[in-house]
């Protein structure tokens, strides 16, 4: 199940480039929260808090109890971190999008795929393991959201493959990607054709012919 953490936030009243610069100068990050039942809202969060949260996350899916301080008190919004924008050079967090979710409504999202075990075709026959897709689309309730889908590849022999339909999904999780998509494949080892190397070694030496005396005299 995806890790669930708490994060404090405050409403962001002023928007615009200058306001964002001021906000970042005091150690905050601009963010938005949106969902199917509420209008999008501008908020701000602590740069230190969100950096720490992401650093300790073991997966891409993080459920956040977003505690937004308002005039009437603090209101908690269960949210999924939808997107994090980073500075292309420094790597600083520039903006965060939160998707508000309900514990009683299905989520449609993507989770990463991870392999474990040693494929038989690789370990014993020198095959090459190929991973053709790295994320899979799923459907589940927030309480069942996995950080990743771990796939046992130990039984894969040479030429064998695992498709989406073959994956063992966690309880309460349904794969919505095309069931015929190939996830893992053990390919045959690449063998160099010895005839090609022999041809290169036996290639005839190119000898340039000297110009004939007659041809040389004609150009004098």
Structure explained in plain terms:
With 220 residues, the protein is an alpha+beta fold. The protein has five helices and 13 strands. The chain is elongated, with a radius of gyration of 29 Å. About 3% of the residues have low confidence.
What descriptors fit this protein?
alpha+beta; four-stranded mixed sheet; 220 residues; 2 domains; elongated; 5 helices; RNA Polymerase Alpha Subunit, Chain A, domain 2
Radius of gyration: 29 Å
Class inferred from helices and paired strands: alpha+beta
Q: What is the residue-mean pLDDT, rounded to a whole number?
A: 86
- The CATH topology of the largest domain corresponds to Ribosomal Protein L25, Chain P
Give the termini separation: 90 Å
- Portion of residues within helices: 10-25%
Q: How many domains in all?
A: 2
Looking at the structure, what is the overall shape? elongated
Strand content: 35-45%
CATH class of the largest domain equals: Mainly Beta
The residue ranges in which pLDDT falls below 50 over 5 or more consecutive positions are 210-215
Short structural description:
The chain is built from 5 helices and 13 strands.
Topology:
Blueprint: E1 4-11, H1 17-25, E2 28-34, E3 41-46, H2 47-55, E4 63-70, E5 73-86, E6 93-100, E7 107-116, H3 120-123, E8 128-131, E9 135-140, E10 149-152, E11 161-163, E12 174-175, E13 182-187, H4 194-201, H5 213-218
Parallel strand pairs: 1-4, 2-6, 7-10
Antiparallel strand pairs: 1-3, 2-3, 4-5, 5-6, 7-9, 8-13, 9-12, 11-13
């Amino acid at each position: 199940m995806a890790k669930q953490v708490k994060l404090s936030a405050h409403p962001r009243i002023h928007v615009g480039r200058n306001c964002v610069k001021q906000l970042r100068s005091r150690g905050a990050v601009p963010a938005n929260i949106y969902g199917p039942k509420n209008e999008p809202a501008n908020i701000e969060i602590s740069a230190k808090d969100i950096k720490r949260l992401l650093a300790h996350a073991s997966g891409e899916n993080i459920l956040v109890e977003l505690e937004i301080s308002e005039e009437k008190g603090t209101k908690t919004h269960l949210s999924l971190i939808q997107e994090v924008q980073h500075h292309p050079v420094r790597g600083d967090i520039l903006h965060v999008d939160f998707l508000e979710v309900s514990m009683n409504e299905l989520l449609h999202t993507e989770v990463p795929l991870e392999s474990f075990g040693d494929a038989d075709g690789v370990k014993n026959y020198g095959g090459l393991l190929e991973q053709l897709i790295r994320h899979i689309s799923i459907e589940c309730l927030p309480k069942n959201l996995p950080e990743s889908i771990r796939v046992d590849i130990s039984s894969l022999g040479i030429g064998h493959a695992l498709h989406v339909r073959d994956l063992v999904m966690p309880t309460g999780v349904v794969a919505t990607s095309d069931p015929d998509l190939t996830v893992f494949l053990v390919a045959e080892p690449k063998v160099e054709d010895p005839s090609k190397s022999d041809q290169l070694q036996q290639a005839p030496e190119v000898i340039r012919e000297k110009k004939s005396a007659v041809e040389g005299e004609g150009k004098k």
